[in-house]
Design a protein that fits this description.
Elements lengths: L3 E6 L9 H18 L3 E4 L13 H11 L4 E8 L5 H14 L4 E6 L6 H7 L11 H12 L23 E6 L2 H10 L2 E5 L7 H11 L6 E8 L3 H18 L10 H11 L13 E4 L1 H15 L3 E5 L5 H14 L9 H5 L1
Parallel strand pairs: 1-2, 1-9, 2-3, 3-4, 4-5, 5-6, 6-7, 7-8, 7-9
Helix pairs in contact: 1-2, 1-11, 3-5, 6-7, 8-9, 10-11
Length: 341
């Protein structure tokens, strides 16, 4: 079974580093990802977090697509609950006009924000919640499929440029409910195993039943290093970040020494977890590779999208490089633009 690998970038902010540097790190990682042979590069959306730097994924998608030439680039995902479906359709149709055949529009179902930011993001704060995310997804797809045909004196809003192709639309989720929504709508689906590993099998199997002609993506967290000891040390940062979230602590990603000290002091909520596949995969390339192959083959998934959170950017790049080599990804041939950049 051939497995495609992709990257989900949350722009982790290392402790002691400006958030703007985390965005520069994203551009650097995307260029490496293209050379390593990854299929697509998605960027997440979070708000009011010191540990993650991306609040406007459509802007980073633009920058990354411009800095690469073959990589598929997209959102992972736009948090549609906050936005007008029509504006999102206009934004991503513009992106496909600039980068035809390379743009994915991943839609997230959560808010990715606290109540304060959620209210601030609402176009009319005094208004109610409005349509559900599923209803907004259908509106968005209708705008992307729209044509300039006029029905009498009225017409539907037209998302321009009209001659630009629609982006590939993906629904992102972490529950069986999201899988059912995607399957019933016959829309591509990516399941966040790293968020809810207990529901991975149920969700992906439900999607397979409802949309048998489509192939879902499984999103995992992985930390890969040349040795088990180094992987464990790097992985301590991800463990600390996960534990901090349960204390409403959204500080930047700690160095391994700081992370290990915190885990020793407060304990690790991950230690008691027992799922069919671990929430986070870590270790040497062969160890992580075997676990990815197990998940992919058992669930009939052809593509895995990987998020890696460590303190050191170069170690993060190296983790993706080792994983690409383990799966013998076809390295991209640099374009003239890449050579002269």
């Amino acid at each position: 079974m051939t497995i495609r690998l992709s990257i989900l970038d949350q722009a982790p902010v290392p402790e002691g580093t400006p958030q703007s540097q985390a965005l520069a790190n994203s551009l650097d990682l995307a260029r490496h990802a293209e050379r390593f042979g990854y299929t697509r590069y998605w960027v997440a959306e979070h708000h009011a977090m010191y540990s993650h730097a991306i609040s406007a994924p459509e802007i980073l998608v633009t920058a990354i697509a411009s800095a690469t030439s073959t990589l598929r680039v997209g959102s992972g995902g736009v948090l549609l609950t906050h936005y007008s479906p029509f504006k999102v359709a206009e934004t991503f149709r513009t992106l496909t006009a600039l980068h035809p055949g390379r743009i994915d529009l991943g839609i997230g179902r959560s808010t990715g924000a606290d109540e304060v930011e959620t209210l601030a993001l609402r176009p009319a704060p005094e208004a109610g919640r409005g349509p559900t995310v599923d209803a907004k997804v259908e509106q968005l797809r209708a705008y992307l499929a729209g044509s300039p045909a006029v029905d009498g004196a009225r017409r539907a809003p037209l998302a321009v440029p009209l001659d630009a192709p629609a982006p590939d639309v993906w629904l992102l989720g972490s529950s069986p409910g999201s899988a059912v929504s995607a399957g019933r709508a016959d829309i591509d689906y990516a399941f966040a195993h790293f968020i809810n590993p207990g529901a991975t099998r149920e969700s992906i199997e439900a999607y397979h039943r409802l949309a048998p002609a489509r192939s879902p993506i499984a999103a995992i967290t992985a930390v890969v290093a040349d040795t088990e000891a180094e992987a464990a040390r790097l992985y301590s940062a991800q463990r600390a970040v996960r534990n901090r979230l349960f204390r409403n602590d959204v500080r930047p990603v700690p160095e391994p020494d700081t992370a290990l000290a915190e885990l020793a002091r407060y304990g690790d909520i991950l230690e008691g977890e027992n799922f069919e596949w671990p929430r986070y995969f870590w270790g040497t390339p062969d160890r992580v590779g075997d676990r990815i192959r197990s998940l992919a083959s058992n669930l009939d998934v052809e593509e895995i999208i990987v998020v890696t959170t460590v303190h050191d950017h170069q170690a993060r790049v190296r983790s993706y490089e080792l994983l690409a080599a383990e799966f013998a990804l076809p390295a991209a041939t640099p374009s003239l633009q890449d050579v002269t950049r």
